[in-house]
Design brief:
The protein is an alpha/beta fold and 193 residues long. The chain is 41% helix and 23% strand. The protein has one domain (4-186): 3-Layer(aba) Sandwich (Rossmann fold). The chain has seven helices and nine strands. A five-stranded parallel beta sheet has the order 2-7-1-8-9, sandwiched between helices.
Length: 193
């Protein structure tokens, strides 16, 4: 198996994190998760180096200036980025690397790699109303933050057609099965190396 990048993007609340967790639990997929760097504060239960590498804005901006990020973006007033060295090391090891990033980062990565090296998938919520309900049920954000996330989600969803595949996460098990099918199919031996 050649090293490949699998990009998974979705608006906040679409179920991306739960899908990623389930994908990583399936050892037959042989996935490794790319750990992004962010300036946002950790949520309860998050551990530095597991969900994200947490850093401050000046350090993040210095790393941008030094060209250390393969991609980076400002999302919900925080900075997020993927370290170029980590991705290259994974490709050199022939890993199948899962990148959980937003549409802006996905566009930057698609511009830097050949189509046979990556696959991009966008996860849609069933509706904006359902997305709002999911965000409210999390109990993590104020109503103002939820309103901003829903507005941002609408803008993000306008970019879904830029991805190789789009999956609606109305039923978790159906969405997960489709993701697994796409990942397994992506390693078809007929693709160029």
């Amino acid at each position: 198996m050649a090293g490949r990048l699998i990009i998974l993007s979705a608006p906040s609340g679409a179920g991306k994190t739960s899908l990623v967790k389930a994908l990583l639990e399936d050892s037959s997929l042989q996935l490794r998760l790319s750990i992004s760097t962010t300036t946002r504060p950790p949520r309860p239960g998050e551990v530095h180096g597991r969900e994200y590498f947490f850093t401050d804005v000046p350090t993040f901006e210095q790393r941008i200036a030094q060209g250390e990020f393969l991609e980076w973006a400002r999302v919900h007033d925080n900075l997020y980025g993927t370290a170029a060295a980590d991705v290259q090391a994974a490709l050199d090891r022939q890993d199948r690397l899962l990148l959980e990033i937003d549409w802006q980062g996905a566009a930057q990565i698609r511009a830097r790699f050949a189509p046979h090296q990556l696959m991009s998938i966008f996860i849609l919520p069933p509706s904006l109303a359902e997305l709002r309900r999911r965000l409210e049920n999390r109990g993590q954000d104020s109503q103002a933050v939820i309103d901003r996330r829903v507005a941002a989600a609408e803008a993000e969803m306008a970019h879904a057609d830029e991805f190789d595949h789009v999956i609606m996460n109305q039923d978790f098990s159906v969405a997960l099965a489709e993701l697994k099918r796409l990942i397994r199919h992506h390693d078809s031996p007929t693709q160029p190396e």
